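Hi there, hope your week has been kind to you so far. Do you reckon you could talk me through the fold, stretch by stretch? I've dropped the whole record in just underneath, so have a look:
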Amino acid sequence: MKGQVGFINDIQLYSLCDGPGIRSTVFLKGCLLNCRWCHNPEGNRRYPQVFPYQTNCNDCGDCLEACPAQAIEMPEPCRPRILRERCIDCLQCAEVCGEGAMVVWGRMVSVEEVMEEVQADKPFYRHSGGGMTLSGGEPLAQPEFARAIMAAAKARGISTALDTCGCAAWEVVEGILEVTDLVLLDLKHMDPHAHREHCGASNRIILENAARIAALDMPLRLRIPLIPGFNDSEENLVRTAEFIGGLCRNGREYEVDILPYHPYAGAKYRIFGLDYPFPEGEGYPEDRLSGIVDLFVSRDLTVTVGG
């Protein structure tokens, strides 16, 4: 494999949800946070990892026999669970499973291989104002690889966007901003203690990085995953809107993408044999959502929903 390599989960072509226009979204492995509502648990670790697809299991037991660490249990027929504290990521269970019930998430690729796939969408970028977005996981969990991909895209005339939680040292962020045209930055909560409890780390460095990015006067969109009972109180939303308003300077305005919680991730967790701490059922209440949008609009912020 030639050139710099790293680990990705997937490359989604013709994406309409990860920045302006039609985009190719590269999902890198690894994350710097541990959000309790995470919709992509298969992207949290940097290296390839097996997840059980319980709906495909036929209860043959081949995976149990193949596992050298005894890291698989079958508490119910056709319901394999992986004991992560024992798993050594040898991937042998996936090798012996003929039913697709043990699936490896993540693959090692080179920058050149990523660009071969991304360039398939290049004609659409020109007509839609799109480009390539690095997402995850968290791109900053593999900063050198992420920067190399962005630089390769820029060299090919492809616009770049960084979808990030911003939880990294400024020198790491600054290095990738040199080859980034647009930043999509998550703001999950304004209180550092609540942020640490639900996301695994304080928000201090995230807010500092947001201010530094704004000071560079580069295109920036703030994204708010709206999680019921976590960050949707009026107090937190007002603080969030005031923080974003404080970033605006010299006539620069930043769009706000409100991303309402939806329960679909729960189904993925069940398939993987994982516990999901949030309720199943309907998505975020429409009547509450409209009031939250009004809260941001009343402070002269441009808002999109589900962006």
Q: What stands out?
A: Residues 234-247 form the longest helix (14 residues). The chain has eleven helices and 13 strands. Residues 167 and 206 are 5 Å apart (CA to CA). The radius of gyration is 20 Å.
